[in-house]
Known about the structure:
Elements: H1 14-17, E1 21-25, E2 28-34, E3 40-46, E4 49-55, E5 62-63, E6 74-75, E7 84-89, E8 94-101, E9 110-117, E10 122-129, E11 134-142, E12 145-146, E13 150-152, E14 158-160, E15 162-169, E16 172-180, E17 186-190, E18 199-204, E19 208-209, E20 212-213, E21 217-220
Amino acid sequence: MRLGVAIFVALVLAPAAGASITVATNAAAPKLRVDAKGNAEVSWTSGGVRRFLLVPPRGRVYPGRRLTAPDVSRPVSSPAIPFARALRLTPDGRYSALQAWRVQPGGPVELRFSRWKGAPTNVRLIVETNTDSVRLSGTSTFGGRPLPAYSPTPEGKRIRQYVYLDSLGGGAWRRIGGVTLRADGSFRRLVPINLVGARYRALVPGPNIGATYAPDAATVGPPP
């Protein structure tokens, strides 16, 4: 977020995940509820036991706690976000979501929580080739602005923001590496010759900005 019995937050998985809140790994049947004050309850099944995590509007999260007020959110289908397991909207226009994806190649599938207003995190990928190299470049934004260089965990620790780049070869995605974002939200990376593939993708853990936990973004670049 290994087998789904532990509860994790961004502080624990900072080098891998970068931002947002990682709730659990290999979690089954995840659900999401949100009350009128913005408290979110994430639940999932692990080891045959139903587990819970309470995410308040700000500050630390609370493993094992549940909502004490009614759920005021409703399920929605847009905006489209990758790896979505749940997407809900509250009357104040705020989205809450659960996404599940394998942040580390060969690692467990992480269940991740986000909460934001407006357009979700966006990433754009450009693939350029010449006779002896492949170069990946692009930009990532949230709310129409470049992603910040650093993102805090709920505990207040600053984590460097990365874009992760993958290459498709032999029917499987392989991690090329992580690249830091420039001040304008752009990134650039040469692909090592042994990782040149048929397609490429960029994955971005959403940044944390105050009470906002932006959703993760992903895109597959066009063929070179």
